[in-house]
Amino acid sequence: MTAIAQNTDNTFARTENQPTNLQKLGGWSGIIAGGTWIFGFAMFVTVFAPLISGELDTAETVAFIGDNQTMFYIWNLVIYVLFGIVQAVLTLAIHERLKDNAPALSQIAAALGLIWSALVIGSGMVANIGAATVIDMYTVNPEQAGTVWAAVDAVGRGIGGGNEIVGGLWVVVLSWAAMRGGLPKSLNIAGLVFGLAGIVTLVPMLTDVGALFGLGLIVWYIWAGVVLVRSNS
Predict the structure, then answer these.
(1) For the segment 55-82, what is each residue's pLDDT rounded down to a tens digit?
(2) Could you write out the three-class secondary structure of the chain?
(3) Cβ–Cβ < 8 Å for 101, 180
(4) Average pLDDT over residues 181-205
(5) Pick from 135, 152, 160, 120: which is nearest to 70 by CA?
(6) pLDDT of residue 232
(7) CB 84: neighbour CB atoms within 10 A?
(8) Average pLDDT across the chain, whole number
(9) How far apart are the C-alpha atoms of 86 and 77, rounded to whole Å?
(10) Cα(208)–Cα(187) distance, rounded to whole angstroms?
């Protein structure tokens, strides 16, 4: 009987520790997510500045990507694939934190967060695989390579890079849910503002507002990550 009681206590202790471990893991994931955005912006305005200058045509864009192929792959792996992975972990951690106070909204937020993870990972993989294809094609037919890249880029942007509607909805819904408890009120207000900035990128004339969403989420991710880590330290 004593052995059974001890085993039961050990099992209960492991179960009790699981949410705490998930919260810490989610917290560090949030901090890493913020870091991926910092890395992405830094690369965007330095190494890959020509891609956003509008001065390169499609064939020249392929040539530029070919000249910077390794960095392009790393860039996509960090800002899309790595971000998507840590985004999923953070989503589950926040759901665990909010589900008791706001079960319905927390479930909706979790679904949106996981969908966003899948979309951004898919976008990164499309970009990297597409880049490899058009770089090989460029040596034979530069113009065709440029045309194919334009199509690949459109697909990738449509999946996860062209607007921030899903990510914006995720932040808005979880921030609204967290108003009932679970995260600091100031963090929730910031989340609502930044999330709405992401949602309005769905309107073509307001796509520039996406910069506020991106820069704001750097702060939000790191802030949320620190809150989760500290609350379970």
Answers:
(1) 888 889 999 999 999 999 999 999 999 9
(2) CHHHHHHHHHHHHHHHHHHHHHHHHHHHHHHHHHHHHHHHHHHHCCCCHHHHHCCCCHHHHHHHHHHCHHHHHHHHHHHHHHHHHHHHHHHHHHHHHHCCCCHHHHHHHHHHHHHHHHHHHHHHHHHHHHHHHHHHHHCCCHHHHHHHHHHHHHHHHHHHHCCCHHHHHHHHHHHHHHCCCCCCHHHHHHHHHHHHHHHHHHCHHHHHHHHHHHHHHHHHHHHHHHHHHHHCC
(3) yes
(4) 89
(5) 135
(6) 67
(7) 23
(8) 87
(9) 12
(10) 23
**Total structural domains within the chain:** 1
Confidence class for position 162, pLDDT limits 50, 70, 90: low
What is the token pair recorded at 171? 């932040």
Angle value at C-alpha 80, between 83 and 61, nearest 5 degrees: 150
φ, ψ at 13 (rounded to 5°): -65, -40
What domain range is 80 assigned to?
2-231
Residue reference for tokens 């993989």: 125
Give the Cα separation of 186 and 194 in Å (integer). Answer: 12
Query: Exposed/middle/buried for 77, CB within 10 Å: 0-12, 13-18, 19+?
Result: middle
